[in-house]
């Protein structure tokens, strides 16, 4: 049976937040009207050295929709997710994200956009476009956002964009660095603060 949605969580040493990330993702999917359509929650763990995997195992026992990819090399999470995701639409996050941003991204896809981006927060994308663009991409979420934007721009299209929440000077500086890592060949280092 084809999945309607894959929510993809890119994880590395997210022990303090992983339980809330999973619960929030499930709540968002259910609140946007999954209406019994199957979905999956794909947790891609990039060789965490904390208890992220242990917590995911406990959550997996309670959530049949949760699938776990473990021991993924750093910088390869997007590729592995693109190869493993089963949904018609993907929602990708690498940190604890405001549920309203996730809902906004999913609504953009429902309303005909091929992709929706909140810089450094989420990427919502049609599976066909995601597989084509992200299936060979090293790096993390921001690299994936840039690749999808570049591909759509080359086709004369644009993704839906929403400004990132103002999280302060440190987060803005980190987002700036993450956006430029690919330009200097370091896209494998694209990950949120604290990982």
| Rounded mean pLDDT score | 86
Q: Tally the helices.
A: 7
Query: Unreliable stretches, pLDDT < 50, 5 or more residues?
Result: none
Report how far apart the termini are.
Answer: 35 Å
Percent strand equals 15-25%
Note down, in words, how this protein is organized.
This protein has 195 residues and is an alpha/beta fold. It is built from 7 helices and 7 strands; from the N terminus they run βαβαβαβαββααβα. It has helices at 18-31, 52-62, 77-84, 99-110, 127-134, 141-154, 169-180; strands at residues 3-11, 39-45, 66-69, 87-93, 115-118, 122-126, 160-161. The chain has a 7-stranded mixed sheet, sandwiched between helices. Strand 5 (115-118) and strand 6 form a beta hairpin. The mean pLDDT is 86.
Short key terms for the protein model shown above:
single chain; 195 residues; 7 helices; globular; Glycosyl transferase family 2; Nucleotide-diphossugar_trans
Give a summary of the structure in a few sentences.
By secondary structure, the protein is of the alpha/beta class. The chain contains seven helices and seven strands. It has helices spanning 18-31, 52-62, 77-84, 99-110, 127-134, 141-154, 169-180, and strands at 3-11, 39-45, 66-69, 87-93, 115-118, 122-126, 160-161.
Mind sketching the topology for me?
Elements: E1 3-11, H1 18-31, E2 39-45, H2 52-62, E3 66-69, H3 77-84, E4 87-93, H4 99-110, E5 115-118, E6 122-126, H5 127-134, H6 141-154, E7 160-161, H7 169-180
Parallel strand pairs: 1-2, 1-4, 2-3, 5-7
Antiparallel strand pairs: 4-6, 5-6
Helix pairs in contact: 1-4, 3-5, 5-6
